Structure formats: structure tokens, C-alpha cells
């Protein structure tokens, strides 16, 4: 994964957008909501234990081109926070374990999806999305909460991770038209990262990969078609 990959994906997205803009069946929208995320790919994060899922959020702008009433192509750009939660064992001044301090690792990504959508029905509609996505890491932060014995802390570890992530998205949902051109949607979408995002060696030849499940509430407006 390198700058050529970024350029290729950007050109693909822009060319798709340009093609969409010259045809009918264009819908633009905004969507967002909570997500639950975790890391996977090595024994420490896979087995759980001290590492737990994190509740985060995502938001974005969507663009859809309908080929027919059944099939369409969706793209856009979004922000998604992924990560994990954990507990840090604090040691007192005598070297004894004293308390567990909550902490979390936040991975802030810019997400570019490219998904096919199948739609059924009219009022309401039901749909299924599936396709690849590309993520660009904006920042990775490890944050610990304050306690009675020490203040909270944060550490920027972005340089320890690759800037690019890629994976597969799949989701299903429903929508209700509110006017002839406006529709409200609710979607449950899962993003599974398939690329090792760690730029440093992982224990026992493992990897660090992302995954998240998003609940997206959206509103879309039909420009043409």
C-alpha cells in the first residue's frame, strides 16, 4: 500500500462520481450514528481478556447512482472512529498493584467505500449493500482516564501504524420516503478490515486489523431520476 494506491482509489472514486454526474438516478445524502469496534488479527486482541470492544461513532456523505430500481452503486466519504478499550494496572510508589485505570485506543479514519446496492419495495424500501472500502488513518491516540492517584494522559502513536487500511463492507437496512425526492434510512453495516495496519512487528507473526459494526441513520435527496 503506497501513494499509488491512494491515487488509484481517488481516481476511481472521482471517475465514478463524474460518470454519475452525467446521468440520471443521482441521490446524495448524509448519514451517521454509533458504532461498536474492535481489533483482530493476533492472540491478544482475539482472545479478549483485558481488551474489550469500544463504543464510537461514524458520519459521512453518501452518493448513489441507480442503474435500475433494483441495482445501484454507492460511494462517498466518511469519518469513522474505531478502537478498543482496556484497563491499565497502576503501581503505587512501593511497587504494589493498586488500581485498574480505564484506557482506550482511538483510530480515526477517513473512509472511502464503493458498494453495490440491491433495493426492494417502495414504501418502505429494503436494501442490501456490499463492497470494498479504503481507509486513511488521520490519527491514533491512546488515552487513559484520571484516577485518585494520577492524572489522565494521552499519547499520539500515529507513526506506529500504516496510513492505509482496506477491507470489505456489508450492510442491510430499510428506508421510508417522506417526499417524492427525500427518504429517511436506517442501516446496520459491518466493516471488516483485511489489511495489517501495524507498521511494527506484532507478537508471534500476528497482525492488527480493524472491524466495526455501525448503526447509520441517514437522509437522502434525489437530485435526478
Automatic annotation (TrEMBL):
Residues 21-197 form the Outer membrane protein beta-barrel domain. The keyword NAD does not apply. It comes from the Bacteria. The keyword Amino-acid biosynthesis does not apply. Residues 1-21 form the signal peptide. Keywords: Signal. This is Outer membrane protein beta-barrel domain-containing protein.
Amino acid at each position: 500500500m503506497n501513494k499509488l494506491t491512494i491515487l488509484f482509489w481517488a481516481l476511481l472514486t472521482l471517475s465514478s462520481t463524474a460518470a454519475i454526474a452525467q446521468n440520471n438516478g443521482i441521490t446524495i445524502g448524509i448519514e451517521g450514528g454509533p458504532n461498536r469496534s474492535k481489533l483482530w488479527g493476533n492472540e491478544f486482541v482475539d482472545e479478549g481478556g483485558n481488551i474489550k470492544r469500544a463504543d464510537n461513532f461514524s458520519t459521512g456523505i453518501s452518493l448513489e447512482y441507480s442503474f435500475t430500481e433494483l441495482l445501484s452503486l454507492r460511494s462517498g466519504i466518511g469519518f469513522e472512529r474505531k478502537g478498543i478499550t482496556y484497563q491499565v494496572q497502576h503501581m503505587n510508589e512501593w511497587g504494589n498493584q493498586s488500581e485498574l485505570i480505564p484506557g482506550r485506543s482511538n483510530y480515526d479514519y477517513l473512509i472511502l467505500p464503493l458498494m453495490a446496492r440491491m433495493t426492494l419495495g417502495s414504501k418502505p424500501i429494503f436494501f442490501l449493500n456490499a463492497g470494498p472500502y479504503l481507509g486513511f488513518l488521520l490519527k491514533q491516540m491512546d488515552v487513559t482516564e484520571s484516577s485518585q492517584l494520577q492524572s489522565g494522559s494521552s499519547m499520539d502513536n500515529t507513526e506506529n501504524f500504516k496510513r492505509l487500511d482496506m477491507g470489505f463492507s456489508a450492510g442491510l437496512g430499510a428506508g421510508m420516503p417522506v417526499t417524492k425526492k427525500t427518504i429517511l434510512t436506517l442501516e446496520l453495516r459491518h466493516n471488516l478490515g483485511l489489511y495489517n495496519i501495524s507498521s511494527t512487528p506484532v507478537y508471534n507473526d500476528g497482525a492488527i486489523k480493524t472491524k466495526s459494526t455501525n448503526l447509520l441513520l441517514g437522509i437522502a435527496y434525489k437530485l435526478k431520476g
